Amino acid sequence: MKILLLNLPYNGQKLQRDFACAHSSKADYYWPPIDLVVYSAIFSEQELYFIDGVQDSKNIMERIIEINPDYIFTLVSAISIKEDISLIGKIKKAIPKVKVSASGDLASFEPKRIGKEIDFIIPDFTEREEIRKIVFGKQKRILESKKRTEFSIGIARHELFKKYNYKMPYSYYSPVTSLITNFGCPFRCKFCNSNRLNFKYRNLNEVVEELRYIEKVGIKEVYIRDFTFGIPKLKELLNSIIKSGIKLKWSCEFRVDIANEEILRLMKKAGCFLIFYGGESGNQKTLDSMNKGFSLEQVKKAVDFTKKAGIETLISFIIGFDNETEKDIHKTQEFIMELYPDYVSINVLVPRIGSEFREEINSSEEIKLDNSEAMGKLYSNGKYAVDYKEAIEKKFFFRPMKLLRYLVLSAKTFQRFKNFVKSGASIFLRIK
Questions:
Q1: Do 32 and 25 meet the contact criterion of CB atoms below 8 Å apart?
Q2: I need a surface site. Which of 64, 190, 259, 374 has the fewest CB within 10 A?
Q3: Close Cβ partners of 179 (under 8 Å, ≥ 6 residues apart)
Q4: What is the model's pTM?
Q5: For residue range 308-367, what is the model confidence (pLDDT) as tens digits?
Q6: Distance from first CA to last CA of the chain, Å, rounded?
């Protein structure tokens, strides 16, 4: 039995569809979609193949036909659904026997928008036994996402993903792989859809075992794809990694109201070199209206503690909220400059599928909205927020002291130096 893990191409663009959160990469980076990594664990004993059409779409139909798979597991998204379904239709016409299963934002939140070309819709890619029934039993078209506290998926076949040399803009090494320690999110941010997924955590022994396996197959760096790393058994997980002697470098997403000096010291000792925080706004009223659940002061303390621990900081901000004025965006810009993180990601607000914010729109145009920044320009304050986004990025990245800092950081490894040059060129060409 042949199973193909397929990341569908999208018009020559780097579209990241994984974890029900489709978006395009802003610079020269891409990681293996976590959904497909997990499927490689669920079917680890089978004859597995992997094609990443986003990274390499050349002769993709010929390559798929040559493999002649019995089952395909892939991702579809609201941004790319027409193109996704079109290619899947061509594949099924060429290989009539093949059964296609898909996860992604539409699978999790609006499965009725997915066409009949998809045989099975997977809202929760961690439901090991339910997913295995697609191949080894009888399964209905839309799988269930069961409420549970803990889950196990097995150990992913990370060697399948090495050939594409994935990397992040700040990576020490290439290829980078991805891993999860939990699924969903227990926090209630209105603009995000992750809190609509049933939150659960992964068996800790399995996480450590997978990290050992990653090290064994020669991969040196991991992007941990949790929305909030390690919760709820964070300290136990960190101590287990430290005790194991694993020497991997890893980055993760984390919350400022969980970060403290003790936890950050443990994270550093366990191999963490960068933390991605969601700061979101420099205005407390905006944070409160979006249910972030923390204060500006907590953001400041978290960044200070992280720097003190010797961990690099990447902070994301969103502009274009309904209640924001241009003056408020200036406050966010001032806050970013005050924090002085190593890296920053500026995003224009869009109504993500599955989010509370999207539901509040209640517009006849809702079906036309996707998660792309281009659509953000058409929504509310996005019309002027895009211009501010580029102005903030230019002011942040192209300061003499910041460029000097990047020169120092880039010297960590030769791979990192190359990443910085490519990412810097990409940012420059986009915002010059």
A1: no
A2: 374
A3: 34, 37, 156, 207, 210, 211, 214, 222, 223, 224, 225
A4: 0.94
A5: 999 999 999 998 887 788 888 899 999 999 999 999 999 888 888 888 888 877 554 554
A6: 51
CATH fold for the domain made of 2-148: Rossmann fold (3.40.50)
Q: Yes or no: say if 77 and 93 are a contact pair by the CB < 8 Å rule.
A: no
In residues, how long is the chain? 432
**C-alpha 30, offset from chain centre:** 9
Tens of pLDDT, residues 34-62: 999 999 999 999 999 999 999 999 999 99
Q: At what angle do helices 414-431 and 400-410 cross, to 10 degrees?
A: 150
Report d(CA 164, CA 249) in Å as an integer: 19
pLDDT interval class at 422 (50, 70, 90): confident
Compute the CA torsion angle 103, 223, 302, 233 (nearest 10 deg).
70
Starting at the edge strand found earlier in the chain, the sheet holding 200-202 runs 150-151, 200-202, 182-183
pLDDT at res. 289:
92
Q: Please state the domain extents for the chain.
A: 2-148
Three-state DSSP at 336 gives helix
